[in-house]
Design a protein that fits this description.
DUF393 domain-containing protein, 170 residues, DCC1-like, protein-disulfide reductase activity, globular, 7 helices, DCC1_Trx, alpha+beta, 2 domains, Glutaredoxin
């Protein structure tokens, strides 16, 4: 939604994975905190109607690699800064305020990057690479590519979980 001057009425647009149960918990929490004030514009990248052109050109694969947001000024934001800005928008800026410290922010981003890389597996879904391959196959009109794990070939490597994660999941 745009204001009459062409500037959006929201402060930040959150791009989220609507197929991720943990992501949806965060979205639902933030929606409740936003309480209809429209400070946050929530956009589901997994929705069939998702349009990269309307979202700073951020395609599905890019958005799945790590969290993205778009500021009202059009600036693309990624990583922990997204959470900081979202929480500031709903009056809970203190939660992520410590990440404004450069050292803490860098450490938080490194931890988040690891989480983002393996979040689909950690939350019980297939590896991110497999999800992206399936989505590309569906977009190319090949229909449901089925499970790409378990076989030989390009998809099999994407199904591997790091040793520490494999041990933790056992």
């Amino acid at each position: 939604m745009l204001l009459s001057a062409g500037r959006p009425s929201w402060e930040i647009r959150m791009l989220y994975d609507g197929e991720c149960s943990l992501c949806m918990k965060e979205v639902n929490f933030l929606r409740a905190r936003d309480a209809g004030r429209n400070k946050i514009d929530f956009v589901d990248i997994a929705s069939p109607g998702y349009d990269p052109a309307a979202n700073a050109g951020i395609g599905y694969a890019t958005a799945m690699e790590k969290i993205h947001a778009i500021g009202a000024d059009g600036r693309v934001i990624t990583g922990v800064e997204v959470f900081r800005r979202l929480y500031e928008a709903v009056g809970l800026g203190w939660v992520y305020a410590v990440t404004k410290n450069d050292a803490v922010g860098r450490a938080a981003d490194k931890l988040y990057d690891f989480w983002a890389r393996y979040r689909t597996q950690i939350t019980g879904r297939e590896a991110l690479g497999v999800i992206l391959q399936r989505r590309a196959a569906e977009a190319a009109g090949r229909g449901d590519a089925g499970s790409l794990c378990g076989g030989e070939g390009d998809g099999a490597a994407a199904c591997e979980v790091p040793q520490a994660e494999a041990a933790r999941r056992s």
